[in-house]
Every structure is written in C-alpha cells, then in structure tokens.
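Hi support team,

I submitted a single chain yesterday and got back a structure, but I'm not sure I'm reading the token output correctly. Could someone confirm the output below corresponds to the sequence I sent? I've pasted both exactly as they appear in my results page.

Thanks,
R.
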Amino acid sequence: MPAKSESLIQIDKTDRRILAQIQQDASLTNQQLAEKVGLSPSPCLRRVRALEDAGVIVRTITVLNHKKLGLSLTVIILIGMDRHTPERFAAFEEQVGEYPEVLECYLVTGHDADYMLKVVVPDMDEYHHFLLNRITRIQGVSGVHSSFVLKRVIDSTALPLSYLL
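Hi R., thanks for writing in. Yes, this is the structure output for that exact sequence:
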C-alpha cells in the first residue's frame, strides 16, 4: 500500500477509466473519450482538465517507432561517479539532460553504479561515438558499464492503475 502523501489526490472509477483510455491512445477526441468512459462530453472534459490541473496528467506525447526511424540500438548504461556530492550529481544530471539520446536517467542504489541511463542510437558506431565523446567526458564519471538490449519484451509508458482506490 502506498505511503500517505499530501500530493496524492482522490481518483474515482470514472477518473481511472479516463486515465486508462488516454494512456492507451492520447489522440482520442473528447467526444471519443467520453463515449468510451460513459460520460457526456462536457463532464468528461471537466474531469480531464481537473486531472491536468492536479498534475496527474503531466503531458500528452506521441510514441514513435524507433526502428522505422533507424534508431535500432538501445543501451542500458550504468555509470559510477568519483564523488557523491550534490554538486557533482547536479552537474552530471544537467549534462545528460542535454543529450537527446538519453531517454531515461535514474539515480540508483544497489549496483556498483550511481546512475542508470536508457540510451537509443542508430548503431554501435554511433554508440561508441556517444560514449567516448559525451558520457566519458562528463566530469566525475569514473566508470561505465554498457548492456545492449536484444529485444524489447515489455515497452510501455502506461502506469498500473489497479492500485488506485
């Protein structure tokens, strides 16, 4: 059960249905969404706006097919830092935030690493260039371990809504 937090908001069954539908297809019109969740358009739009205002819906995105765009290599990179200071971490995070190849960046524990990155590039040559000319040049990076994704078994952006009461 999640810890109590002031940032949690009340989500009812209708809100959950709305969230499930827009996680599957954010391109639905308000009319289509309303039909799918059993509301008329005006109340549906009010609920969506309330979820946006509450910060539950952060943004609407389009998911692209990486392979059709020639971005065939996905790499998980574990990165160790030489010093564990807020300044060192902030500088690293700012720098990797500028790289469009970095899809995800996590500060982690439980590994011989401080950060885990998910990176997408066209091929091994581009990854080699990215690693040597960007990642290893960030001040404080002391170790890098790369794992190459062979197959995307689960590749989802949808959150599990069944935990919502």
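A quick pointer for reading it: The domain at 13-62 is CATH 1.10.10.10 (Arc Repressor Mutant, subunit A). Let us know if anything else looks off.

Best,
Support desk
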